[in-house]
Write a structure and sequence with these properties.
It is built from ten helices and 13 strands. By secondary structure, the protein is of the alpha+beta class. The protein has one domain: Glutamine Phosphoribosylpyrophosphate, subunit 1, domain 1. The protein has a nine-stranded mixed beta sheet with strand order 1-13-12-2-6-7-3-4-5. A four-stranded antiparallel beta sheet has the order 8-9-10-11. Helix 2 packs antiparallel against helix 3, helix 3 runs antiparallel to helix 4 and helix 8 packs across helix 9. The structure holds aspartic acid. Aspartic acid (ASP) binds next to strand 9.
Length: about 350
Amino acid sequence: MPDRRKFVKLSLLTSVALLINKRSNASTSTDSQPVVTKDSPIVISTWDFGAVANAAAWDILKKKGRALDAVEAGVMIPEADPDNHSVGLGGLPDRDGRVTLDACIMDENYRCGSVMCLEHIVHAISVARKVMENTPHVILAGDGALQFALANGFKKENLLTPASEKLWKAWLKRSQYKPEINSENKYQHLPGDIHNHDTIGMLAMDSTGNLSGACTTSGLAYKMHGRVGDSPVIGAGLFVDNEIGAATSTGVGEEVIRIVGSHLVVELMRQGLSPADACRKAVERILKYNPVKSKEVQVGFLAMNKKGEYGAFALQPGFTYAVKSGHEENTYASKSYY
Ligand code: ASP
């Protein structure tokens, strides 16, 4: 299990750069984001914990492995990390104390698989992949997804760790559902801590130039039982078009679903926008339909195009993303509207 403190120290020692987020407004270009051209293979993922996930994906990409295998292996790292309270094992539960996972995966051929509201299985992403590969369907949900997982050899486990249970019990005292804007200190949760969401979305291009993506989360903490966010919804939390590029999202899923966010980002790249500008336009769409709500919630988009250029944009400051390629290993702070 990767030790985050050690990782952070190592990251600093190896000069992992954290670019400081600069306030921007909608009229300014976001092209000061780093741009890497024709860099393949490459993997990018949401949040600072994406760096350890990227490392696992890179192990596959550097051996000329397939992007699909890389993104699955990559996001399995946070899924198995009990200290990560927003993905997989140790994810914060719904308001009834049940950990329910959402995940999806998409390859270079428009093939995709998804699980929604899956309980008791650590690697939701692998179940999603099996849905894609072994069924005629795209989505399995709830008990049907669990039965499918068990029939395919996945082990039933208790995903509610003592730490997550403690946080949930502390939350029960106020029982107020309110997604907070960021989760910068997700590994330093104290009982009743306000940080209560995030997701890993990962996009990779392999040495053949093919793209794939994966997205997995325990969703918004203390949600209603049965709530499904954007993360397992193809087009919302993740979209891959091998001719154009790929995008993924994090933040309050309801806002992303309304605009079918990741699909929108890819279509904007199809129109010629850079990944960062496409992400910015999608954020502006959210702002346009609900400027009041947009002040209170976080949404972040991350995208990569077929040239290996990448970029991000968020509603609020604090969204970070991690990049790994043959010549860089960085964590960046995304630009944001506010
Ligand atoms: N997008 C996730 C959801 O709505 C949560 C997050 O990324 O913070 O379930």
